[in-house]
Design goal:
Blueprint: H1 12-20, E1 38-42, H2 63-67, E2 75-79, E3 89-91, E4 101-104, E5 117-118, E6 126-129, E7 132-137, E8 140-142, E9 149-152, E10 155-160, E11 163-164, E12 176-180, E13 185-190, E14 193-194, E15 200-204, E16 209-214, E17 217-219, E18 224-229, E19 234-237, E20 240-242, E21 247-252, E22 257-260, E23 263-266, E24 283-285, E25 293-296, E26 299-302, E27 314-316, E28 319-321, H3 324-331, E29 338-339, E30 403-404, E31 415-417, E32 420-424, E33 429-430, E34 437-441, E35 449-452, E36 457-461, E37 465-467, E38 470-474, E39 480-484, E40 488-491, E41 501-507, E42 510-519, E43 529-535, E44 541-544, E45 552-554, E46 559-569, E47 574-583, E48 586-589, E49 594-600, E50 605-608, H4 610-613, E51 620-630, E52 636-642, E53 653-655, E54 661-668, E55 675-679, E56 685-696, E57 703-714, E58 730-735, E59 748-756, E60 762-768, E61 775-781, E62 787-794, E63 799-804, E64 811-821, E65 828-839, E66 857-861, E67 873-882, E68 889-895, E69 906-908, E70 914-921, E71 927-932, E72 941-949
Parallel strand pairs: 1-2, 2-4, 3-6, 4-7, 5-8, 6-9, 7-10, 8-11, 9-12, 10-13, 11-14, 12-15, 13-16, 14-17, 15-18, 16-19, 17-20, 18-21, 19-22, 20-23, 21-24, 22-25, 23-26, 24-27, 26-29, 31-40
Antiparallel strand pairs: 27-28, 30-33, 32-36, 34-35, 34-38, 37-40, 38-39, 41-42, 42-45, 43-44, 43-46, 46-47, 48-56, 49-56, 50-55, 51-54, 51-56, 52-53, 52-55, 57-64, 58-63, 59-62, 59-64, 60-61, 60-63, 65-72, 66-71, 67-70, 67-72, 68-69, 68-71
C-alpha cells in the first residue's frame, strides 16, 4: 500500500501508525524455521490458565508461562488489548538453527487490539538471557525508565518489527530501547520503530560481535540514536535517526564494522536537561575505531534554520567536519555521502537525492523498508546507488510509486434485486507510468476476478446481501493499493418486515403511566434498510438507527395513542408496524393537610388554584380531595369540576343546614391544576378542602389494586382485635398491611369507615401510624346516627389509627376497599368529566323509572360509555347519593358476579340525603351491583369521576 509523504512536523505517533498500516514485510537473513507447535497467550480470555497447555481455547494468562515451556520450532502467539499490557518477560529457552523459537504479537494494525509488554525502572519489558536462535516480532513494548529490550549472553537473536516507546522524560533520560551486552553475538535489530523517551535507541556494548542494526526508525534519543562501543563486525545500515539530542550514530571503543545508507536528521534542538548535547555531530567514529570502520552512502540532513545551533555533521578520529565534502576530502570516507537534504521523517519526496542512491550490497541491507514495502526502482529518478538487484533509497523509508484510483471507478449499477449484474473497471494510473493490473473481490464469497487496468469486469450477484467490493491495483513492482466501495445492494424480493413493541416505563416497581418504552428490534436483512421513523401518535416522531432501538417517549396527556414504525429500504419500499399505548395516570400519595378554608356564597363559585391543591407538579391530571362543609345557612350540594368547563349536573357532597358533612371526590384539573367548587344552596356554606392524593401521567408513582371488600375492624364482634364501643377521645390502631392481599410496602389504603351506635354527636379522625400530624377527618354523626365515609390514607408502617373525636362512645367499623402500591398487576387511572350514569328517578342507567327496593340489587353497566373503556376496567370512581330516603339503611356496592360482601358503602338515615365516594371493583362483564340493605325503597344516584384500568402492552 502506497502512502504519501507526511507533512513536516507530523507527530511521531502518527508516523508510527502510518507505518504499521501497510503491514510488515520480510527481509531477515534467518533460515526458514522448521514447523513446530503454537502456544497461545491471552490474558483477556476468561478461560486463560498458566497451568494449562496454552491452546487457543485455553491460552496462558502470562507470556512468562509460555516462555518457560516453549521448545525449539514453537511459535508463541501473544494476543490481547493494548490498554492491558503484559508484565516484563525473560526468555531463557533456546531454539536451533533449523527450529528457532518465535514470539509474535498480532499484526500491528491501527485502532485494533494489540498485545504489549511493559517493564519498569528495574526490569526491561523483555530480557533475552543466555539463549540462541530466538526471534521476537510484531510487539509493542514500553518501560518506565529502564531498558526496553535487554539482550545478554545470547546469539542468533532477531528483534524485528517492534514498537518501543515510553513517555518523554521530564529530566535526564536513562536506559536504552534496545541494549545488547558484550557477551552476545549474531544479533539482528531490524525494522523497529523506536520512539522518544530513552537515553539510547540501540546500544551495543563492548565485546559484542556480529550485530546488525538495520532499517530502523529511531526518534529523539537523548544520549544517542545508535551507539556501538567496542563491538566487532557491527553493521549499521539503512536506519533513519530523527532529531537526536546527541550523536545520531556512533562507533567507538575499538569497534569494527560498516556504517552505510543511513539518514541522520537534525531539527535544531536546544540544550536542556533532557537534551544535553544538541550540537554533537550526527555521525561519530572515535580514533580507536577509524581503522576498522568504513562509512559511505550516508546522509546528514542538518536543519539550517537561523534558530538552529551550529552542529557538525561528522566527527572522525576526533576531528569535526561541517559538511560531507569536507569529511570526504579529509578522510577518504563517505565518497557517496550527501548533506543539505531537508528531509524529515516520512517518505522521501519525489526526485529527492535519497531515492535510488543507496548501496544495495551494504551488509545487512534488506529488501523491504521498515514497514514492509519493497525496495523499488523509481522510474523518474536516475539510479546513483550501487547494485542492480534492488534500488534502495537511503534510510529506513522507501519512496513508492503513487497509484491513483479515480473516485468514480465504482460498480454500475450499485443496487438491484438479486440476481442482478454489475460491471466495474478502473482507470488507475501511477506517477511512474507503470503498467497496472487489478483484482476485484466482489464481497459475496466468490473468487476475485482479475484483469488489466482499463478493462471492465462483470459480475452477477446471485444472493441478497450488502456487499463491499474491494479493488486492488498492483504495479509491476508488486506494490498495490486497495480501495473499497460504499456498498452494493443485492436486494430481497420483498422488503424487510418492521416490528414494534411497547412496555410500561417502570422504575423500582413504580410506573410512569404516561411514558412508553418502545422496542424496535433490528430488522432481518438490516443491511437493506435505509431509514426508520417512529411516529408516536401524538404529532411527534423520532428517527431511529437501524439496530435495535428502545426510545422512551413521554405523552402529553392521558389517552390512547397508536405508534407507527415506518421502515424504508434502499429501494424506497416501505413496511410498517404499529402498537397501541394507553397513556394514563398513577397515584401520587400526599400527606393529608387541609389546604384551604373558605366560605362560598349561595350559588357562588370557589376557585382553587394548582398551588392550593398541590397539583402543580409534573403531569397532574386529577386531584383526590376531601371536602368538609360546616355552618351551612341552607340545604344544598357542592359540585366540583374542572375550571373553565361547563358545570356538570352532578354533586360532590350534599349538606344540610346547621350540620357538618364530609366526602371525598376526584376531579380533573386544568393543565395549571385549577378547579371550581359550586354551591347550589340558597345560603352560604363554609368549606375546608384537603388534598389526599394526585393522579399524574408524568411521574413514577403507584397503581391501584381494588380488593374484594372485606371487613378489617368491627368493635361490635371483636373483628380486628377490639371488642366493645370506643370511648370518646380514645383510639384504636388497626393493622392494614400484611393481610387480605395488602403488601407490607403499600403506599396508601382505601377504607370505608363507619361509626354506629353513637352515644353523642362527634366525628372520626384517621391518622397514618407513626406520622404525627398526618390525619384526615372521617364521617360526622349525630347522636344515634350511623355514618360512613370512604377515606384514602397514606401508610408508613402498614397501620392506621382511628380516633373517636366525640364525647360519647361509638362502635367503629372499617372495610378494606383497595390499596395503592408498586406490586405488579395494578391498575392505572383515567379521569373523566363528571357524568351522572345512574338516576333511578329518571331511568338513567337502568332504562326505567323505579326506586331500588329494600333488599334488592341493581345491576349497573359502567364500561363502554362516558370515556370508560369497554375492556380492562378493574374499578370505577363513583360518588353515590341516596336522596331523601323514606327509611334508614345502607348500600353495598360490589363487583357483579361476585358474592355480596358484608360491608358498608353508603349509610343513610330517614329523611336525610346521604352521599359517599365509592371506589367500586368492576365485574368481568363490566357491571357493578348496588344492594339496598335498608327497610324501604330508595332512589340512587351514581356520578362517574374516573376509572381504573389494566391496559395490554404491545
Amino acid at each position: 500500500m502506497h502512502r504519501p509523504r507526511p507533512a513536516v512536523g507530523l507527530s511521531l505517533a502518527v508516523i508510527a501508525v502510518a507505518g504499521v498500516m501497510s503491514g510488515w514485510g520480510t527481509g531477515t537473513a534467518m533460515a526458514d524455521p522448521v514447523s513446530g507447535g503454537t502456544l497461545y497467550v491471552n490474558h483477556n480470555s476468561q478461560a486463560c490458565s498458566d497451568s494449562g497447555a496454552g491452546t487457543e481455547s485455553r491460552p496462558f494468562c502470562t507470556v512468562q508461562a509460555a516462555a518457560d515451556l516453549v521448545t525449539p520450532g514453537d511459535t508463541v502467539r501473544i494476543l490481547g488489548f493494548d490498554n492491558d499490557p503484559y508484565l516484563a518477560v525473560t526468555l531463557t529457552r533456546s531454539g536451533t538453527r533449523d527450529a528457532p523459537i518465535t514470539f509474535t504479537g498480532e499484526p500491528l494494525l491501527p485502532n485494533g487490539p494489540q498485545a504489549s509488554l511493559t517493564g519498569s525502572a528495574s526490569a526491561p519489558a523483555l530480557t533475552v538471557r543466555g539463549v540462541h536462535d530466538v526471534r521476537v516480532e510484531s510487539l509493542p513494548l514500553s518501560d518506565e525508565g529502564g531498558d526496553g529490550v535487554a539482550v545478554t549472553g545470547s546469539d542468533h537473536v532477531t528483534l524485528d518489527r517492534l514498537v518501543i516507546n515510553r513517555p518523554a522524560p521530564s529530566g535526564p533520560a536513562t536506559g536504552s530501547a534496545v541494549e545488547v551486552d558484550g557477551t552476545s553475538s549474531s544479533v539482528t535489530v531490524s525494522r523497529n520503530w523506536i520512539g522518544p523517551g530513552s537515553a539510547y535507541g540501540v546500544r551495543v556494548r563492548s565485546g559484542a560481535s556480529q550485530v546488525t542494526v538495520t532499517t530502523d526508525v529511531i526518534t529523539t534519543m537523548r544520549q544517542g540514536g545508535i551507539a556501538v562501543t567496542g563491538a566487532t563486525g557491527a553493521d549499521v545500515t539503512s536506519n533513519t535517526v530523527w532529531a537526536p539530542c546527541s550523536t545520531g550514530i556512533s562507533m567507538d571503543g575499538g569497534s569494527s564494522g560498516v556504517v552505510e545508507n543511513n539518514v541522520a536528521i537534525s531539527t535544531g534542538s536546544r540544550q536542556s536537561s533532557t537534551c544535553p548535547t544538541p550540537t554533537a555531530p550526527l555521525y561519530t567514529v572515535s580514533p580507536d575505531s577509524t581503522g576498522q570502520v568504513t562509512g559511505d552512502y550516508n546522509v546528514a540532513a542538518n536543519d539550517a534554520a537561523p534558530s538552529a545551533p551550529a552542529r557538525p555533521e561528522y566527527s572522525w578520529a576526533g576531528t569535526s567536519y561541517a559538511t560531507s565534502a569536507a569529511f570526504r576530502d579529509a578522510t577518504g570516507q563517505g565518497a557517496h555521502d550527501i548533506d543539505g537534504v531537508m528531509e524529515y521523517l516520512g517518505m522521501p519526496v519525489e526526485h529527492s537525492p535519497l531515492i535510488d542512491s543507496a548501496d544495495a550490497t551494504a551488509p545487512g541491507e534488506l529488501t523491504t523498508d521498515y514497514v514492509g514495502r519493497p525496495r523499488v526502482d523509481d522510474r523518474l529518478v536516475t539510479d546513483t546507488g550501487t547494485g542492480t538487484t534492488t534500488h534502495p533509497d537511503r534510510g529506513a523509508i522507501e519512496r513508492q510509486d503513487t497509484i491513483d484510483i479515480p473516485s468514480d471507478d465504482a460498480p454500475s449499477p450499485t443496487q438491484g434485486i438479486a440476481p442482478f449484474d454489475t460491471s466495474i473497471k478502473t482507470d488507475a494510473t501511477t506517477s511512474w507510468g507503470e503498467a497496472l493490473t487489478y483484482s476485484i473481490d466482489f464481497g459475496d464469497g466468490s473468487a476475485p476476478a482479475h484483469g488489466p487496468a482499463g478493462t471492465p469486469i462483470t459480475h452477477t450477484y446471485t444472493t441478497p446481501g450488502l456487499r463491499t467490493p474491494l479493488i486492488t491495483v498492483t504495479d509491476t513492482d508488486g506494490n498495490s493499493r486497495t480501495t473499497s466501495y460504499g456498498g452494493v445492494v443485492a436486494g430481497t424480493t420483498t422488503p424487510p418486515a418492521a416490528a414494534l413493541s411497547m412496555a410500561p416505563d417502570t422504575a423500582n416497581g413504580s410506573v410512569n403511566a404516561g411514558s412508553a418504552q418502545f422496542t424496535a428490534p433490528e430488522p432481518a436483512d438490516s443491511w437493506e434498510v435505509a431509514s426508520r421513523t417512529l411516529s408516536f401518535g401524538d404529532g411527534t416522531q423520532q428517527n431511529l438507527a437501524i439496530g435495535t432501538e428502545q426510545p422512551l417517549h413521554q405523552y402529553p396527556a392521558p389517552g390512547t395513542y397508536t405508534a407507527t414504525l415506518t421502515q424504508t429500504d434502499r429501494f424506497g419500499r416501505t413496511t410498517t408496524a404499529r402498537t397501541t399505548f394507553h397513556a394514563a395516570d398513577t397515584f401520587v400519595a400526599t400527606d393529608p393537610a387541609y389546604d384551604t378554608e373558605k366560605t362560598i356564597a349561595a350559588h357562588g363559585v370557589l376557585k382553587l388554584s394548582a398551588a392550593t391543591l398541590r397539583a402543580d407538579s409534573n403531569g397532574v391530571d386529577a386531584a383526590q380531595l376531601q371536602i368538609v362543609t360546616s355552618g351551612a345557612k341552607a340545604n344544598g350540594s357542592l359540585t366540583l369540576y374542572t375550571a373553565g368547563t361547563a358545570r356538570p349536573g352532578t354533586s360532590s357532597i350534599t349538606f344540610e343546614k346547621g350540620r357538618t358533612a364530609l366526602n371525598e371526590a376526584t376531579v380533573k384539573v386544568t393543565p395549571t391544576g385549577a378547579v371550581d367548587l359550586y354551591n347550589s344552596g340558597s345560603g352560604a356554606v363554609t368549606v375546608n378542602v384537603a388534598t389526599v392524593g394526585l393522579q399524574s401521567h408524568a411521574q413514577y408513582a403507584d397503581t391501584y389494586h381494588p380488593a374484594t371488600p372485606v371487613r378489617l375492624l368491627d368493635t361490635r364482634n371483636h373483628t380486628g382485635g377490639v371488642t366493645g364501643p370506643v370511648a370518646g377521645n380514645h383510639s384504636v390502631t388497626l393493622t392494614v398491611a400484611g393481610a387480605h392481599g395488602v403488601p407490607a410496602g403499600a403506599a396508601a389504603v382505601v377504607l370505608d369507615v363507619t361509626a354506629t351506635t353513637t352515644k353523642s354527636s362527634g366525628s372520626l379522625v384517621l391518622s397514618t401510624h407513626g406520622t404525627p400530624g398526618s390525619s384526615l377527618t372521617g364521617p360526622y354523626w349525630t347522636t344515634g346516627q350511623t355514618a360512613s365515609a370512604q377515606i384514602v390514607l397514606p401508610l408508613k408502617d402498614g397501620k392506621v389509627v382511628l380516633r373517636n373525636a366525640g364525647k360519647g362512645s361509638a362502635n367503629l367499623v372499617a372495610d378494606l376497599v383497595g390499596w395503592y402500591g408498586t406490586t405488579a398487576g395494578g391498575s392505572e387511572f383515567l379521569p373523566t368529566a363528571p357524568a351522572r350514569i345512574l338516576n333511578t328517578r329518571t331511568g338513567t342507567g337502568t332504562g326505567k323509572v323505579a326506586r331500588l327496593a329494600a333488599h334488592a340489587t341493581l345491576k349497573l353497566k359502567v364500561t363502554g360509555a362516558h370515556g370508560v373503556p369497554a375492556t380492562g376496567v378493574t374499578a370505577v370512581d363513583l360518588n353515590l347519593t341516596v336522596p331523601s330516603p323514606s327509611g334508614s339503611g345502607y348500600l353495598v356496592a360490589y363487583a357483579d358476579g361476585t358474592p355480596r360482601p358484608g360491608v358498608y358503602s353508603l349509610n343513610f338515615t330517614k329523611g336525610h340525603t346521604a352521599a359517599n365516594r365509592a371506589l367500586v371493583k368492576v365485574g368481568t362483564d363490566g357491571e357493578i351491583d348496588l344492594y339496598n340493605a335498608g327497610t324501604g325503597p330508595v332512589d340512587v344516584y351514581a356520578d362517574l369521576l374516573g376509572d381504573y384500568d389494566v391496559f395490554p402492552t404491545g
